[in-house]
Amino acid sequence: MTLPSLLLAWSALALAASLSPGPDTLLVAGHAARNGLRAGLAAVAGIVTGGLWYMALFGFGLLRLLNASPTLFLVVKTGGALYLAWLGIKLLLGALRRQPATQQHPVRLSAPYRQGFITNALNPKVALFYLAALPQFVGTAPHAPLFGIVLIAIHYAIGGAWLSAVAVGAAKTGGTIRNSNFMRWIEGMLGAAFIGLAGKLAVSRS
Question: Cα(103)–Cα(117) distance, rounded to whole angstroms?
Answer without folding.
Answer: 28
